[in-house]
Design brief:
The protein is α/β, with parallel strands linked by helices and 564 residues long. The chain has three domains: 22-318, Alpha-Beta Barrel (TIM Barrel); 339-437, no CATH class; 449-563, Alpha-isopropylmalate synthase LeuA, regulatory domain (Double Stranded RNA Binding Domain, 2-Layer Sandwich), CATH 3.30.160.270. The chain contains 18 helices and 15 strands. It has helices at 39-45, 53-66, 80-91, 109-119, 135-142, 146-165, 186-200, 222-235, 255-264, 286-295, 307-318, 339-350, 355-359, 391-402, 411-425, 431-443, 488-498, 545-563, and strands at residues 34-37, 70-74, 100-106, 124-132, 171-179, 209-215, 242-248, 269-272, 449-458, 466-474, 477-485, 504-505, 510-514, 521-530, 535-542. Helix 4 (109-119) runs parallel beside helix 6. It is elongated. The structure holds 3-methyl-2-oxobutanoic acid and zinc ion (ZN). Zinc ion is lined by residues 42, 214, 216, 247, 249, 283.
Length: 564
């Protein structure tokens, strides 16, 4: 791909600001920024089917529940719907007392008038004025020079000030965006912002003016964006009376990184949208930025503890699906397909209680940097089974979904059985299908032996002796055998031997209870060791633990017969 045209190069890295003593690279983010949602404006204007007024209201209420305190609700002068939506929020008193809604307007007299008309009766609001300050826009779009641009900014802010002063009952703040800030000569951006600050004339630490410095189009790498923010913060003369806000678009796929570096560089506030809706490749995804900070122990004051519900609502309202691998919200975020990952997650989850002592943190699990439960997501969906999956993952799903504690030594046999199924179907295997493999292969396998009943009876004089009687069908023919042992299981093993079943021994086996009280069932997982040392597992289930063990032996015998 050629990047050159005849004389001038077609593309180049934009010139960087001169900041040799930059501080941001050695800083660590330790507190949350202020958050501003522009979903209902920047996000909405870029939807193939913009939201209806009722959908906007539902979205607005969602944003309030999540905890946004600055919400850009409309471009009131741009359309009747936007104007009326702003009025509806105010007239129906739908704005929580700690929320500032925002209305965007260009720096044009009649549009500013209309914006303030929409704000009449508001308790608190932010008038957001924007004006392009880049040479590209000034020369190619507006035919304006710097002087005229500066004058327009000042005239517009003075108008906004007059209109705000005429509403003494309302707390009206100003936000000003030099559009295409990251493509603007930074000296000129500061000059415009100084003039805006003076024209507004009433910014204070308590009621700061917001300078939103947008990467309207992401044209620079994140380090250059951060340099610009640190540089602006040093140059601007009333830093304590303004908030520096960033508004990163994602044209080069680095909006989250740019935002984080800009925060290190001193930005106080972040504008963006849920899941990154917005013009072209979108605005920065606030869910990712906020959850990143959360994953580093920072309290963001945004509530994503039910992220799936947030995602479903946004998908439904916008009509746009969230990508499977979208950080935090995507379907596959807490899914491991590969066997080694599944195994590691399985081990990590079981050893999680040791994490605080070993690592000084409550959450340390391989391949999962956050606890899915913190986002309202389920452990059940952690592991999906396909032909790449391993034994650990299979055992994990059976434990999570069915409470089965598959012994470690049995997991390879089970894994092989599941692998056979997944190779055959050529797709992901569901949890129910896994369970069926377990039942068909281990709990009720076909074979020559069918237990009719087993009666272990204690000896009248020796309490350590059991007399066992088995009724069993072998290849359909019912037989009765008796044998003794020092326990119900050993008496059963002796009786089975008398039947002429293949040689095996049992060293040890695993039992568990499933369910509680009258509903409880015992599960027994019994390894039958054949004379050559090969082990075949059988599983039995019954309300009585000894009966479960003997059923497991019968299952093991059937499996041995099948293998032979
Ligand atoms: O991206 C942008 O520059 C904007 C402004 C209106 C703030 O959305
Ligand atoms: Zn934008």
């Amino acid at each position: 791909m050629s990047t050159k045209q005849s004389q001038a190069p077609k593309y180049a890295l934009p010139p960087a600001v001169d900041l040799p003593d930059r501080q941001w690279p050695s800083r660590t983010l330790d507190k949350s920024p202020l958050w501003c949602s522009v979903d209902l404006r920047d996000g909405n204007q870029a939807l193939p089917n913009p939201l209806s007024p009722d959908q906007k209201l539902e979205y607005f209420e969602l944003l309030c529940r999540i905890g946004f305190k600055n919400i850009e609700v409309a471009f009131p002068s741009a359309s009747r719907d936007d104007f009326e939506f702003t009025r509806r929020l105010i007239e129906e008193k739908r704005i929580p007392s700690d929320v500032f809604i925002m209305g965007l307007t260009q720096c044009r007299t009649h549009l500013i008038d209309r914006t303030f008309e929409a704000f009449q009766g508001i308790e608190r609001g932010i008038a957001h004025l924007y004006l392009a300050t880049s040479e590209l826009h000034m020369r190619q779009v507006f035919d304006l020079d710097r002087k005229r641009t500066l004058e327009t900014a000042v005239k517009s802010v003075e108008q906004a000030r007059r209109l705000a002063d005429a509403m003494p009952e309302s707390d009206i703040r100003l936000e000003f965006s030099p559009e295409e800030f990251t493509d603007t000569d930074p000296e000129f951006a500061v000059e415009v912002c100084e003039a805006v600050f003076n024209a507004w004339g009433k910014a204070s630490a308590e009621k700061p003016l917001i300078f939103n410095l947008p990467a309207t189009v992401e044209r620079r790498p994140p380090n250059q964006a951060a340099d610009l923010i640190e540089w602006f913060g040093r140059k601007f003369s009333h830093r304590d009376k303004v908030l520096i806000s960033v508004h990163c678009h994602n044209d080069q796929g680095m909006a989250v990184a740019s935002t984080e570096l800009c925060l290190l560089a001193g930005a106080d506030r972040v504008e963006g949208t849920l899941f990154g809706h917005g013009e072209r490749t979108g605005n920065v995804d606030l869910v990712t930025v906020a959850c990143n900070l959360f994953s580093r122990g920072i309290d963001t004051s945004l509530d994503f503890s039910n992220l799936s519900e947030v995602a479903e609502t946004v998908e439904r309202l916008t009509g746009m699906p969230i990508y499977y691998r979208q950080p935090y919200a995507g379907e596959y975020v807490f899914t491991a397909f590969s066997g080694s990952h599944q195994d590691a997650i399985n081990k990590g989850m079981h050893r999680l209680p040791e994490a605080p002592e070993k690592f000084g943190l409550g959450w340390r699990v391989p391949y999962l940097h956050v606890d899915p439960a913190d986002l309202g997501r389920q452990y059940q969906s952690l592991i999906r089974i396909n032909s790449q999956s391993g034994k650990g993952g299979v055992a994990w799903v059976l434990e999570q979904d069915y409470g089965l504690e598959i012994p470690k030594a049995m997991q390879p046999e089970l894994g092989t059985a599941v692998q056979r199924l997944s190779d055959r179907v050529g797709r992901e295997v569901t949890s129910a299908e896994l369970h069926k493999v377990f039942e068909d292969e281990f709990l009720n396998p076909d074979g020559p032996y069918e237990l009719v009943g087993y009666w272990p009876r204690p000896d009248d004089s020796d309490p350590t002796q059991i007399h066992g009687e088995i009724r069993i069908r072998v290849d359909g023919e019912e037989k009765t055998v008796t044998a003794d042992g020092n326990g119900p299981v050993s008496a059963f093993v002796h009786a089975v031997r008398a039947l002429g079943a293949p040689e095996f021994s049992i060293d040890d086996y695993h039992e568990q209870a499933i369910g509680k009280g009258a509903e409880a069932r015992a599960m027994a997982y019994v390894p039958l060791k054949q004379s050559g040392g090969k082990v075949v597992f059988g599983v039995g289930s019954d309300t009585n633990i000894d009966q479960a063990a003997v059923r497991a032996i019968v299952s093991g015998l059937n499996r041995m017969a099948k293998k032979e």
